[in-house]
UniProtKB/TrEMBL annotation:
<dbReference type="InterPro" id="IPR050904">
    <property type="entry name" value="Adhesion/Biosynth-related"/>
</dbReference>
<keyword id="KW-0732">Signal</keyword>
<dbReference type="InterPro" id="IPR000782">
    <property type="entry name" value="FAS1_domain"/>
</dbReference>
<dbReference type="InterPro" id="IPR036378">
    <property type="entry name" value="FAS1_dom_sf"/>
</dbReference>
<protein>
    <submittedName>
        <fullName>Fasciclin</fullName>
    </submittedName>
</protein>
<dbReference type="Pfam" id="PF02469">
    <property type="entry name" value="Fasciclin"/>
</dbReference>
<feature type="signal peptide">
    <location>
        <begin position="1"/>
        <end position="22"/>
    </location>
</feature>
<feature type="domain" description="FAS1">
    <location>
        <begin position="36"/>
        <end position="181"/>
    </location>
</feature>
């Protein structure tokens, strides 16, 4: 009887584990983003980030973004890439433009872990505006846009809204943006 009780208890725990674990995930592009996976392993599953994933592969940044981190990635959706002038993405992924592509992609990466709370705190310290240095050496600016929304501005005067916050990864956090940010 004791063995049967223990077996039933273990079976119940195993069955309940996926539901409990799923509560700690965020859905992006129709797929769960698991906090135990790294940035790349999660991003490849998002139906909304196929262009970003292809660009990361083309630039040779897969191993970097699978690294220890922590990294914060402001991840443009496919729709964000679609806002660029026609032919821009096709031009950027050509081998001869690898350096430019790398600069654009690493401009979306900030060393450290900046979720909504951390970004809000930085904005508060900066009297309503924060600047963070990107992995490419540029700067992104952040301001509150209402009580629950942060706007990101690039060095060329463009801006993006963060549509999904706090997608935690084993090596950082992803914040989904609706516009490709461009370095100077």
């Amino acid at each position: 009887m004791r063995k049967l009780t223990r077996t039933l208890l273990l079976t119940a725990l195993v069955a309940a584990a996926p539901a409990a674990f799923a509560q700690n995930t965020v859905t992006v592009g129709g797929q769960s983003m698991f906090p135990t996976r790294d940035i790349v392993d999660n991003a490849v599953n998002s139906a909304e980030h196929t262009t970003l994933v292809a660009a990361v592969k083309s630039a040779g940044l897969v191993e970097t973004l699978k690294g220890k981190g922590p990294f914060t990635v402001f991840a443009p959706t496919d729709a964000a890439f679609g806002k660029l002038p026609p032919g821009t993405v096709d031009t950027l992924v050509k081998p001869e433009n690898k350096a430019t592509l790398t600069r654009v992609l690493t401009y979306h990466v900030v060393p450290g872990r900046y979720d909504f709370q951390a970004l809000s705190k930085e904005i508060g310290k900066g009297n309503g505006r924060a600047e963070l240095k990107t992995a490419s050496g540029g700067k992104l600016s952040f301001v509150m846009n209402g009580p629950q929304n942060i706007r990101v501005m690039d060095e060329k005067g463009g801006s993006a809204s963060i549509s999904t916050y706090d997608v935690y990864q084993s090596n950082g956090v992803i914040n989904v943006v609706d516009t490709v940010l461009m370095p100077r």
